[in-house]
Each structure stands twice: as C-alpha cells, then as structure tokens.
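Memo to structure team: turn this sequence into structure tokens by end of day. - J.P.
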Amino acid sequence: MKRVLDITKMTTLIGIATDGEKKGIVLGSDSRRTHQEWKQQGDIAYKVQTQREAQKIYVDEKREVAVTMTGVVDPNYTEFLTGILNGSINVKEAIEKGYFADLNELNLRRWEFKLPNIENSNALLLATRYENDPQLHTCYPLGAIERRAWTSIGSGEEHAINYILSQAVSVPALNPPNITLAQGVDLAYQGLKEASQDIYTGGLDLVVIGEEKIIEFGEKIKTSLDNAEQKTITNIRNSL
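Reply from structure team:
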C-alpha cells in the first residue's frame, strides 16, 4: 500500500505590507511543490520524493483576496481553497473576528480531532483589499489571525526572515510597512533568493495587492525566464 502526499510546507511564502507613496501588499512565493510517495517493496517501505512546478498564490473571483498556503495538499486543502476563491468561505468575517473557524476545522478534521500534527496541517497568508484598504494577515493552523507588516512562512522562512531583518537594520528606510511597493517587490524577491538555500524552495511568483486591484505576475515571470533560457541556448548553439 502506498501513501501519496503533496507538501507545500516545503516552500517559502513572503508577505510585505507597504504604505509609502502607494498602500499595498506584495506576496511572493517559490513555485516548487514537493511530492512524496511511500512505496512498499516486500517488508520494506521507502519514500520517493519528487518536485514539480506549481502555483501557490491564488486570487478570489471578486479579486479582493489573495491567498497562499503552506502544508499538505489533499482533498481537505482543495475544498478549503476553493471555498475562499468562490466566496463560500467568508474571509472578511474571519478577519474581523480574528479567528478563522474554517481553517481550524480543516486541521482538526485532518488530525481526526486528536493530537495536533504540525507536519500534517495548513497555515496561510492572506492579503486583502476590502474597502480599498490593503491588509496582510497570517492565519495559524488552529485559526488565530494576526495582522502583519511583513512575514514569511514555510521551510525557507528562516532565510527570508533573516534577510529582511538584516535589511531593516542596515537600511532603516527599508523597514516595512514604511516602504514603497517597488521596495516591497525588491524585498520579497531578494528574500526568496535567500530562501533558495532551502532545498525545497525554487522558482518565483509575485502578486501585488493594491487599493483598487490585484495584479498577478507569475505568468509574466515564467515567460520571461523561459525566453531568456531559450535565447541562451540559441546563443550557445550558434557559437559552436
């Protein structure tokens, strides 16, 4: 018998709030998802681990919420994420209460209402623009919601957090949220580059949440990287 899991905890997610010039939120993520599969061979079970490209930042149908999650990708995760995106889960109400009951239920159900298992859970970052007021929140596995100026979660979070803290210390002007959106993009990008030291982190996606709209840059980044790679290969071939 084999057990298959997609793990997004092995990832790096960054959120940066800004209120310099334009108020907004920058969400950054890597684009690598780790797939684990336990296989049985006689009396021995062994783990096969592979990685693939995957989207990690999603925008709801009303384009008021951007969400990115760490943890296990399974039917519970898919149902919860779908509820956020189609509006059947009331994100605004959860933020106002400071408690995400649906997230709590998701994890308790996965734990069979027994003991917490952080390796088998989901946490998330929410960026919203309700009433044209961009806000960033961390949502913890048991449902607590905390507003943040900046944060990082996932397996590469230590590298990202250390980088952002070092920038805030060495350049006080780079201390979120007292920065511009452009500076927020730079912090998120460089934080993800630092997090690439984590073996489970790779690739890049960026979403910017402004007062009036949400802009997704993941496809543009991927296309640019693919074109640059193809151009390099062409140049190498032509040089031979």
